[in-house]
Every structure is written in C-alpha cells, then in structure tokens.
Amino acid sequence: MASTPGSPATPRSATAPSGDQIVSLRGERELVRRAGGLFTGAREEFLCAAADLVTFSSGVNAAFAGGRRPPLEPGGLTMRKLYTPRALATREAEERLLRIAESGAQVRISTAPLAHEAIVIDRRVAILAGAPVRGVRTFTVIQSPVAVEGVRALVHAAWETATDLAEFRRTRPPVLDEEARRILRALGTGLTDELAARELGMSLRTYRRRVAKVMTVLGATSRFQAGLRARELNVGDGEGFGDGAGN
C-alpha cells in the first residue's frame, strides 16, 4: 500500500522500485522519508549501535514522533541501544541518555570501538551510517538476509561485552580537568600545602579547598586514599601521596 504524502514510508518503500536489497539514502530527512516505516514497523527487536547520540537520534526521533514508537513491553518489542562513552560527554547528553533508558530501552556502553554505527530491525533490515561529509551522512539500507545477519552478529557481539549504563556510570573514572591533575601531582610531591599552593600560583585557602574538591571527586576520605584512587585510575603521577604537612 502506498504511503500518503508526508507520512512515514512503508517498509517496502525503503527499497528501489527494482527491488534492490541495498539502497543509499542521503541525510536524515531522506532516511525518515524513505525508511521511517522500517523504524515504526519494528515488532521484535530494535538494535542500535552508535558512537554518540548524534548519528541516528534526529532521524529515529522524527520517525517516532507523535507516539509512533512501537510499545516496549514484555513479549513485545525489545529495544537495545549501544553507545560509546562519547554519548556521556556532556551533562545534557548524559541526561538525555538516562531518559532513553527510563523510556524502556536497554542501554549499554562499549569502551571498545564499534565496528559499525548501525541499526538492525527484526533481523530483516540493517541501516549503516556513513561518516559525515560536509555535515551530511549517507545511510545504507540493507535487506539482504545474509548481510543483515552479518551486521547484527557484529553489533550483538559488541552488546554482549558492553556495560549496562547504570553500572558504567557507577564505576567509570571521574572526569578530572587539568587543574585537578596538577593538584594530584602536587600532592604526590610531598610538599607542604604552603609550598604546593605557591607552586600552583594560588592562595593556601584556595589550594586546600580544591584539594578537598578533588578528594570528593575521587571518593576519597584522606589524601592517602586519594593517592591510591589516583593510581587505580592512572591519573596524576600516583607517587608519594600521604597525609603530610598542612592536612
């Protein structure tokens, strides 16, 4: 059945009239226009792998707009979304990722590079995202069963070795800026607080306040514990930490 103008295309409209099993679509707008029905037609499995939230989100969100996302419920559609840590690069991105998880999707983080940025739907169609060229991506829609299964196998293997979002957030290394690393290195020298503050060009009060902040970020209750944590995370120089002068 042909789709009406402006409506999501039916699954068949993602292929060329000749029935080609591999079709290239340029940009998110064409992806939604010609393959949006593939997204909304998912019934068993929606498997997505992307480096961050930029690659597929605008196209998928447009296809699912207006409540057209298939319901995620027991015995129904399973939605698995796999990202790299880049998806948590900013607070806004992390909050958005949490909302995705709260909506019923399973979310995992892979610290290993992804072989493909891809979506696989119901084991019958795969959509590969190419690298942006002048800000525009080309998406390749594949409906060859053998090729689809090959893409799914790669994505699923990465999914199996990835970490659940909640666990990743709990155990990931803290983000330390350059100043925090300089403070860790200063602590590692064994200098008194007065000398360390002078070396870093800050007041003693400011130095101690920032030491306390670094300890909080590291989850440490003492400078010695901060040193151990820094060594575990391979930050600072990890040497010579202690509860030395000025503590």
Give structural notes.
Helix content is 42%, strand content 15%. Mean pLDDT is 82; it is low at 1-18 and 237-247. It is of the alpha+beta class and 247 residues long. Helix 6 packs antiparallel against helix 7 (193-200) and helix 7 crosses helix 8 (204-218). It is elongated. The N and C termini lie far apart (75 Å). Strands 1-7-6-5-2-3-4-8 form an eight-stranded mixed sheet, sandwiched between helices. The chain is built from nine helices and eight strands. Helix 3 (91-102) links the parallel strand 3 and strand 4 (106-109).
What's the gist of this structure?
The protein has nine helices and eight strands. The chain has 247 residues and is an alpha+beta fold. Helix 6 packs antiparallel against helix 7 (193-200).
